[in-house]
Specification:
Elements (H helix, E strand, L loop, with lengths): L3 H8 L3 H14 L3 H14 L12 H11 L9 H15 L2 H5 L3 H24 L5 E2 L4 E2 L2 H22 L7 H14 L9
């Protein structure tokens, strides 16, 4: 059971606010082992800066690498290059290294993957360009936007790992996508196959 601070930590998307919440949780002395692992994951995820001096999200960057390579499994020379790029992005955020440390590390990394999928869904819902056609001139219907987002998540987090033979490396991302989808759309019973 999460403390109120940790529950808020997993709802927050702003890196600086997440850091403040994590620091509060660590200062409280509760669940010290898990909070130290959360700090390790946080530092790996948000270690870089953007061009304008903000905090860059390494998990969002590796999600974008997945998105960019979604169709690489169907090209002659695509799979090998795509695998290499995706594994590089995973290693950049120490994903495989952290996951291999302990079951608790893996569990908390999985929670961070759920946070990533929810964050991506929020970004899709709020982005004007994502929700429009014809160079942003015409906004698509909410139902069409949701269908597009669902398809993108399916192709990125479920189909791509199979296509590129990265099911083991991306298992936590795939599992997180399934769980978040089922939580957000319980009436649908999961991704349509």
């Amino acid at each position: 059971m999460d403390t109120p601070i940790i529950a808020q930590y997993y709802r927050e998307t702003e890196p600086k606010k997440r850091k403040q919440l994590l620091d509060q949780a660590i200062a409280s002395g509760e669940d010290q082992e898990a909070n130290e692992i959360r700090r390790e994951i946080y530092e790996a995820r948000y270690k870089n800066t953007t061009n304008d001096g903000g905090i860059a999200d390494g998990y969002l960057k590796f999600w974008m690498a997945l998105e960019f390579n979604r169709n690489a499994g169907h090209k002659i020379f695509g799979p090998g290059k795509a695998q290499k790029e995706i594994l590089k992005e995973l290693d950049d955020v120490k994903f495989r290294e952290i996951r291999a440390k302990s079951p608790l590390h893996e569990e908390l990394l999985y929670r961070e993957c759920k946070h990533l999928v929810k964050f991506y869904m929020t970004l899709c819902a709020q982005d004007k360009n994502y929700n429009s056609i014809l160079c942003g001139l015409i906004t698509i219907k909410k139902e069409s936007s949701e269908a597009k987002m669902k398809r993108d998540i399916y192709e990125t987090a479920i189909r791509l790992p199979k296509d590129l033979n990265l099911e083991e490396e991306l298992a936590l991302v795939t599992k997180a996508a399934h769980e978040v989808y089922e939580q957000e759309y319980p009436e649908e019973g999961g991704f349509p196959e």
